[in-house]
Structures are given as C-alpha cells and as structure tokens.
Specification:
Elements: E1 7-10, H1 14-23, E2 29-33, E3 40-44, E4 50-54, E5 56-59, E6 71-74, H2 78-89, E7 98-100, H3 107-114, E8 119-124, E9 127-129, E10 148-152, E11 155-159, H4 166-178, E12 182-185, H5 189-210, H6 223-239, H7 249-259, H8 266-272, H9 279-282, H10 284-293, H11 298-306
Parallel strand pairs: 1-2, 1-6, 2-5, 3-10, 6-7, 7-8, 11-12
Antiparallel strand pairs: 3-4, 8-11, 9-10
The structure holds NADPH dihydro-nicotinamide-adenine-dinucleotide phosphate and ketopantoate (KPL).
NADPH dihydro-nicotinamide-adenine-dinucleotide phosphate binds next to helix 1, helix 2 and strand 9.
Catalytic activity: (R)-pantoate + NADP(+) = 2-dehydropantoate + NADPH + H(+)
Family: Belongs to the ketopantoate reductase family.
Domain Ketopantoate reductase N-terminal: 7-161
C-alpha cells in the first residue's frame, strides 16, 4: 500500500463520515458521496462536543484522481455496495485494495470472489448515525446540526476471508489506530462477522417489525421468540464452524440487548425513514446456510418473511 496516496471513502453516511473525520486529521482522504458538498464534516463526539473537521468531499460520479488511491473504504449499506463500486471501478487500478465496513455476510464473500485486488473486511462496534436520516430530510448546509453523531466509540477488527493479506490488514489497522480509532488486525474475521451477524439477526428484525427499542427484547413478551431464534442461530453457527462465544450465545446476545437497551436499531431507523433494510445481508446468509446444511429452521424463516426488505 503506497504510504502517501489518498484513501477513498465511498458513501458519505454515518460510518463513512465518521471514518473520514477521524482519518482526515492524520491521512489524505477523499469522501465520495452521491452529491458534492462543503469540504467539512460536522461531527458530534461521544462526549457531546461538536467539531468542524476539514475534509475533502466530492461526488462519486465526478471524482477523477489524479492519483491512484492506496485504499478504497466501502461505507455504503450492503445492498448499495456493488453498485457504488461498479460506478467507480473503471477509474481504479485493478489491484486497489478494498476495505468493507458492512454488517451481515453477503457483500464480503461476493466481493472477495469478484474484486481483482485484496479485499479486507471490518467488523466494527463503532456506533454512529446521521440526525437528518431520522426524518429522511436533508440538512440545511448552514445549519449547526451535526452531519454525524458518534454515539459510542467501539473497536474495529480487520482481516480478509482467506487470511492472505495479514500485512495489509495490519497496516490499515495501524493507520486507523494512528487516527485515534481503536483498531486491530485479526485472523478470524469470518468468525467475527458471523458473530456480529448473529447479534444483528436477533435484534434488528424484531425491533424493526415491532418498532421497539432494543431493550424491549429482554421483556417477557419477547423471550420465547428470542430464545427460539438464538437456538436456531447456534445450530447454523455450529454447522458453519463458527465457535460459540465463551459465555454462550444466549448471554452473548442478551448482553448486547442490555448494553444497547435505549437504541433504535439501524434496521428500525431504516424502516422509520422508509429506506430499504439490510434484511438480505443479515438474514439471507442464515437462510442460505440452513439450505446448504439441510437444516429446517422455522423461527428464522418466519422472521425473514416478516422483515421489511
Ligand atoms: N452506523 C453505524 O454505527 C454502523 C454501521 N455499520 C454498517 O456500515 C454500513 C454503512 O452504515 P451507515 O453508515 O450507518 O449507513 P448510512 O445509510 O448512514 O450511509 C450509507 C451511505 O452510502 C451512500 N450511498 C449509497 N449508494 C451510493 C452510491 N452509489 N454512491 C455513493 N454513495 C452511496 C448513501 O447515500 P445517501 O445519503 O444519498 O443515501 C449514504 O450516505 C452498513 O452496512 C451498516 O450495517 C456497521 C457498524 C456500525
Ligand atoms: C448492535 C446493534 C443492534 C445496536 O443497535 C446494531 O448493530 C444495529 O442497530 O445495527
């Protein structure tokens, strides 16, 4: 990876702006959104302080180098990732490394197979959202409202699905850490992505269907359905050779429900803003794995049918 070449971040949403705002202070970055905007990111940090961070922002359609990027970070929702990359691909050298930030486990294996350069995947517990998206409205560019709210600092693990790019993953994680983010390379990113998927598969669809905050899933009313889902997910993870967390799946997922009790899950936010959800990236791989291993999993099948696409 060329040390001084810029990094492109594709998708100027919550995570794209958070990564750009953090990296811009240490590294050359260009944030590519669907439309051009002012060269600044208004970031509210977890401690509630507001910051205006200078950052180069351009529209993906218009970006034209001149230098080849050292890395492209794909920060769209899973269902937009391929379209966004296709729109950019003819302007990138074929060996450009990618870093995928998506939840779920759909885009990661597909792009690993299809992209000619190295494909790194991240699993992150950073939490960020765009205030404007709750109402689906664009912000007035002169408004003091932040572009992105960094709700909670987390950590980001980086690796590739075949463990062929450990040096690159280490270098990218070092750059993120240098920019103040907690990040590390790992050699079990596939397991980490499936474990995060297990959490999202229980919390996101149920909260979106019933329009409740995450903590509601710990109530008596939801307990049987949550337990049935976790049991089926544990089955699939075993079939996929994903080791269970030390505390067991119930406690692992129950702890996240408690820790994020006051959150509106990202899928609920998408439903409330009339946006497509990441159902297929989160529940699709579970359904596909169940078919592949010949498992009959009625709780997951019901959940898939009820979840808005
Ligand atoms: N937010 C978070 O805290 C976390 C998010 N993730 C994952 O990260 C991914 C991104 O999430 P998040 O940032 O919240 O999502 P957002 O919806 O906030 O951002 C996605 C951005 O991608 C843009 N986009 C879509 N298509 C294109 C395109 N063709 N060209 C350029 N830009 C495009 C959207 O543009 P427009 O604004 O026009 O719609 C939007 O700004 C998801 O997979 C999510 O699951 C993972 C962990 C935490
Ligand atoms: C962990 C959880 C469920 C927190 O809300 C999340 O990742 C999401 O909402 O997508």
């Amino acid at each position: 990876m060329a040390t001084n070449a810029p990094w492109l971040i594709v998708g100027a949403g919550a995570l794209g702006q958070l990564f750009a705002a953090s990296l811009a202070q240490r590294q050359r970055v260009v944030l590519l959104g669907r439309r051009p905007t002012r060269h600044v990111i208004r970031l509210r940090k977890p401690d509630g302080t507001d910051h205006q961070i200078p950052a180069r922002r351009e529209s993906l359609e218009q970006w034209s180098g001149p230098e080849s990027p050292a890395l492209v970070i794909l920060a769209t929702k899973s269902h937009h990732g391929k379209t966004a990359l296709d729109a950019l691909a003819s302007r990138l050298p074929p060996q450009t490394p990618l870093l995928l930030l998506q939840n779920g486990f759909l885009l990661q294996p597909r792009l690993t197979e299809q992209w000619s350069g190295p494909v790194l995947c991240a699993s992150t517990t950073e939490a960020a959202y765009r205030p404007a998206t709750a109402s689906g409205m664009d912000l007035d560019p002169d408004s003091p409202t932040p572009d992105v709210i960094h709700a909670a600092a987390g950590e980001t693990w980086i690796g590739d699905l075949a463990d062929r790019h450990v040096t690159l993953a280490t270098r990218v994680a070092e750059c993120l850490a240098d920019a103040g983010m907690k990040a590390a390379a790992c050699q079990d990113i596939r397991h980490r992505l499936w474990r995060k998927l297990a959490i999202n598969a229980v919390i996101n669809p149920l909260t979106a269907i019933h329009r409740v905050r995450n903590g509601e899933l710990a109530s008596r009313a939801f307990r049987p359905r949550v337990a049935a889902l976790i049991a089926e997910i544990a089955h699939i993870m075993q079939a996929e050779d994903v080791p269970p967390p030390a505390q067991g799946w119930d406690v692992f997922i129950g702890d996240v429900i408690q820790a994020t009790a006051n959150n509106r899950s990202s899928m609920l936010q998408d439903v409330l803003a009339n946006r497509p959800t990441e159902r297929d990236a989160i529940l699709g791989p579970l359904e596909e794995a169940a078919r592949h291993h010949g498992l009959h999993l009625p709780a997951i099948a019901d959940l898939y049918r009820q979840t808005p696409p």
